[in-house]
Design brief:
The chain has a seven-stranded antiparallel sheet with strand order 1-2-3-4-5-6-7, with no helix packed on it. It is α+β, with helices and mostly antiparallel strands. It has ten helices and seven strands. It folds into three domains: about 60 residues, lambda repressor-like DNA-binding domains (434 Repressor (Amino-terminal Domain)); about 45 residues; about 90 residues, no CATH class. Helix 2 crosses helix 3.
Amino acid sequence: MNIETANRLYEYRKANSLSQEELAERLGISRQSVSKWERAEATPDAENLINLAKLYNVTLDDLINKSPVRDAEPEKETVPDEEDGAKEKIHIGWDGIHIEDGDDTVKIGFGGIHVKDKDTEVRIGKDVTVNGEKYDKKKFKCEMKDAFSPKAEDFPIGAICLIAYLLVGIFMREWGRGLLIFFAVPILHGIIKSIRRRRAKYIPYFSVITAAYLCVGAFYGVWHPTWVMFLSLPVFHWLC
């Protein structure tokens, strides 16, 4: 089916205030079939053409030929897509890649990248602008550098603790009490995080108290009254 006929089917549907779903329901077909007609990807069979002519109260000649559409909206420049909007335009050439989908556009070329939607417009080129406001490149570079630079929290503390545990177990036969070494993982991570953010609340105080209590009990056998150190937990959280 040619594009002119496809546009006319779209115009008659809009002139009769029908959505693709409503038209498909009246004809007893799928919405995808209506969409394909209006995109010139398929042609209605004779039965559907007759039903369309009856529904729109026009002749078959009016439906297929180039007579003016009564009460139709002005013809759109692009073929309608599956949801009654304009078909997405894609251009790829020497000047770059241009994509238009209604109010949304993306342009990629030698001048940079230009992205625009209903609420936001971003240009990335010699300068970076967001909604016309120039973005601070120095700040942007610092943020990117900080985002991708290695952090102290990424230090392989867990692997080091595992090696230490194996050494203690092999050479000192302390496989049981040696497990206390693994408390260093959350404790060191928390201390590093608290130093970086300058906030004491990130210190895993519960892990610190638990490790201290188990060490005193396991190595010195003093389980009581060292349990009272847990009473400092609410005090620490209140202070932080």
